[in-house]
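Margin note: ligand = flavin-adenine dinucleotide.
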Amino acid sequence: MAGGSDRAAWRGIMVVAQVTEEGFHSATLELLGKARELADRLETEVFAAVIGAGLGNAPAELVGYGADKVYVVEGEEFSSFVGSVFGTALARLVEEVQPEMVIAAATDQNRSFLPYAATLLETGLTANCMELDVDEEERLLLPTRPAYSGNLMATIVCPERRPQMATVKPYSFPLPSHDSSRRGEVVPFDPGPIGAGGVRVVESRPLQREGPDLRKADFIVGIGRGVADEKLIAQAQVLASLTGGAVGATRPVCDMGLLPESAQIGQTGVSISPKMYLALGISGAAPHTVGIQNVDAFVAVNKDESAPVFDMASHCVVGDARVLLPLLVHEVQKIVSK
Ligand SMILES: Cc1cc2nc3c(=O)[nH]c(=O)nc-3n(C[C@H](O)[C@H](O)[C@H](O)COP(=O)(O)OP(=O)(O)OC[C@H]3O[C@@H](n4cnc5c(N)ncnc54)[C@H](O)[C@@H]3O)c2cc1C
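Resulting structure:
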């Protein structure tokens, strides 16, 4: 099994869908929207690949989000996730369809089986990207991700082999709306027998995340090392609860154990796109700020007027966040209690 180097023989963008108990992972839908935009520029098709069991009519939904053809790989062997089984099925589908690009959300599941498929296809994969673009003339996928500890953004291309593969951090693109008037095809695909290599799934349990989901919050208070202590975090939590927001943090704050790992924003944490981000005592290091996208108002409070965070903030406050936060909580409390 292998990919190819005859570039002209490979056409279309394939989005690998992730099925969850609640339906398709929202990052799958975001990627379909992005794939549609890129495919229109390349004048090519969008394919979705759905691997699972008991899928019913769900795959057809993806047509409304931008897919022209939805390939369905369905069977009992896909009822539990085994990386090698999903990876082999995907590689066989890709060989058959020959898409020039294969993209998937960088969820834990996809990040474990996409590299397996890439290895079988003898092609390259750019993992955990934050931006996707294409070079229409060369028909190149241009995936961009942080490199060198987040100190620069690198666009890593796969010029010779096909398909070109990438995983993209969830919440990197806006959710497209569903267009029920779109027409497309649902095509079953039988990958043939696949052995699990002695792996048997005994039990699967979803990861329990602590606290509110930062990825869905409209207002986030970000806590940095400069002000990291329990008292200030408690005040930030009051502000968040008054406004229906959430509290996030930089990596050092989570490493100190002051907030759970799920509160970490950035390259190795979650990506956020709230309407407003209030950064308190945060220097603005690239591994943190790459996780902040499409924010309407970015308010930074820092004692140091030369802090890099001020280069990207829309509203800059030079001052002591320990003084400002209690005043802010007091003012918001007055407004809310009116
Ligand atoms: C591979 C790798 C991955 C990483 N991933 C991430 C990631 O996902 N997320 C992340 O956040 N980091 C990540 N980091 C760490 C990152 O490089 C920075 O070290 C980190 O973001 C800095 O956190 P900070 O801004 O809280 O702390 P600092 O850089 O120490 O900044 C503290 C700031 O607080 C200000 N300050 C001090 N007192 C006050 C006060 N009273 N009021 C107002 N301001 C004050 C200071 O002027 C300073 O600017 C990663 C690093 C590596 C190497």
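The two ends are 68 Å apart (CA to CA).
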